[in-house]
Write a structure and sequence with these properties.
This protein is of the alpha+beta class and 103 residues long. It contains 3 helices and 4 strands. The chain has helices at 15-31, 59-65, 70-79, and strands at residues 2-9, 35-42, 49-56, 86-91.
Length: 103
């Protein structure tokens, strides 16, 4: 598993549309066998900042599998208006330093 981190700065006037478009783009991610999950977060301190984490089965699964698929074309159609707002798009390696409180 490899997380991809995307950071955006979205003007307040476009925030509702951005969230709706990413919800629609999420359908394409759910259909991809390479996507293991995703989460879109919005900053409390600076509401124009968003952080999207997409968990992929591997970097190749993302770059060669998903990006070559019909699901990617659907995904891209929804997010294309926000490319100029992208601050970061990077794969990260899991370090093993983590903790989650049991439910």
């Amino acid at each position: 598993m490899i997380p991809e981190i995307l950071r955006y700065r979205i003007a307040a006037a476009r925030a509702d549309a951005f969230e709706r478009d990413y919800a629609a783009a999420g359908d394409a991610l759910r259909r991809s066998p390479h996507c293991l999950g995703f989460e879109l977060l919005r900053s409390d301190k600076d509401p124009e900042l968003y952080l999207l984490t997409i968990h992929w089965d591997s970097a190749d699964g993302h770059l060669q599998g998903f990006r070559q698929s019909p699901e990617f074309r659907d995904f891209f159609a929804h997010i294309k208006p926000y490319l100029a707002d992208l601050l970061e798009m990077e794969h990260y390696r899991v370090t093993g330093v983590a903790w989650t409180r049991p439910a």
